[in-house]
Amino acid sequence: MLDHYKTLGVSCDATQEEIKKAFRALTKQFHPDRNSEHTQWATAQMKRVIEANRVLANASTRALYDRRHGLGVEPMRAASRLKHRREGDSLPSQSERILYDLVSGKGAQAVEDFERLVRLGSFRLRDHLELRDWIDCWFLLAEQYAHRKQFDKALAMYEELYHSEETRCRHSYFMNELADRILQICCRDLGAGVAPDQAAACYLRALALNLAKPRRAFLHKKLAECCLEMGDDENARRHLGIAFELKPDMKGATKICRKLHYAPAAAKPTLAKE
Fold first, then answer.
1. Cα angle vertex 43, ends 38, 46, to 5°?
2. Residue 32 to residues 2, 36, 227: CA-CA distances in angstroms?
3. Helix, strand or coil for residue 27?
4. In degrees, to the nearest 5, what angle opens at C-alpha 173 toward C-alphas 171 and 178?
């Protein structure tokens, strides 16, 4: 397996700026024009560098690569830290065993032990693990709940982790991974096929994330559709207006624009002719 981080000469903790800098340096180093006596070798090196950059320069593809290969994303590093299953009845020992079982593929046992401790009433996992271990454990527990289709629990845990990481300015690729999971639950798992007020509540939760403008525009469009379905035309127009402010060339809004007699600023001349 090619290690894209090794190809670019950066660590799995590298920032996007470090990856960009490494890519630029390597493309200059391996450019065929600078290696005229070894053109075939240089071309092969360039292909490796370009592919590594293609994967790592994009937050979503980087997160997927990290998840598949046990690199980068914090929850995948726990396996290298936990060499032995800690024994003992203390809460720290039991908490560490939950993490050990999660990274060892014993998710069902980990969830069972976690829920048993939660039933004690005053148990907080975060109080009994080091911060990076809590991050790993919380992420993997949320993943277990999502696999079990207990989406409300998974969502609350991902949100807690996201906002905790946000205050500490963590690496963007991990934040993007969390945001992707929260959006999937809000928009597909909990927000699809339910009453419009329930769907709207999911979209509002997703808007609490620090999202790029296109994603925020999409969520406001979905909120506009919910408001329209609930007969609240005023708020439907408001959310639709915000969506077009964020993304003037937004697609897939023709139907709701017609229903609300709403003409986006960029489209008004065309609509006037019609």
1. 125
2. 22, 6, 58
3. helix
4. 100
pLDDT digits 0-9 by tens, 163-209: 988 876 555 567 877 888 899 999 999 998 999 999 999 999 999 99
Question: Considering the chain, what is the average pLDDT of its residues?
Answer: 85
Q: Which amino acid, residue 224?
A: A
Q: Where are the domains positioned within the chain? A: 4-57, 72-190, 211-274
Distance CA 18, CA 8 (A): 10
CATH of 72-190, one of 1.10.1760, 1.25.40, 1.10.10, 3.10.20: 1.25.40
Closest CA to 62 of 133, 13, 132: 13
Architecture of domain 4-57 in this structure: Orthogonal Bundle (1.10)
- pLDDT per residue as tens digits for the range 37-52: 888 888 888 998 998 9
